Amino acid sequence: MKYIYLCKHIRRSLCYYTTNVMDDNEALYTIIHARDILYTISKGEQNGAYREIIRLIDAYIDMNCIHDYIEDMIDVDIERSQLIRYCKHCSHTA
Ligand SMILES: [Zn+2]
After folding, report:
1. Measured in angstroms, how far is the CA atom of residue 59 from the centroid of ligand 1?
2. Residue 50: pLDDT band with limits 50, 70, 90
3. pLDDT at site 14
4. Other beta carbons within 10 Å of 71
5. Residue extents of the structural domains in the chain
6. Count of Cβ atoms closer than 10 Å to residue 83 Cβ
7. CA–CA separation, 41 vs 50, rounded Å?
8. What are the contacts of 34-38 at 24+ separation with CB within 8 A?
C-alpha cells in the first residue's frame, strides 16, 4: 500500500515537473521563434519601438535560456573557416 502511494506520488511529481518544464521550454522556444521572425526585417526598416521589442525579447531569452553551447566551423570565405561557439537553443554566441 505504501509502495503504491509512493509510486502515485512520484508519478504525480514527475508529471507536474515535466508539464512545467515543457511549458517553460515551449514559451522560450516560441519567443525564440518570434525573435527569429522579427530579425527578418532589415535594421533600416526597424523603428524605435520595433527595436525595443527585440531588445526585450533578447533580454527574456538571455534570462530564461539555459545555454547549452556547441562548437561548429563556419566558412568565412572560400579558403578560410572559423570556429564558432553558440547555444544550440537560442543561438547566443560565446
Ligand atoms: Zn541559449
Report:
1. 11
2. very high
3. 45
4. 9
5. 2-66
6. 8
7. 10
8. 35/61
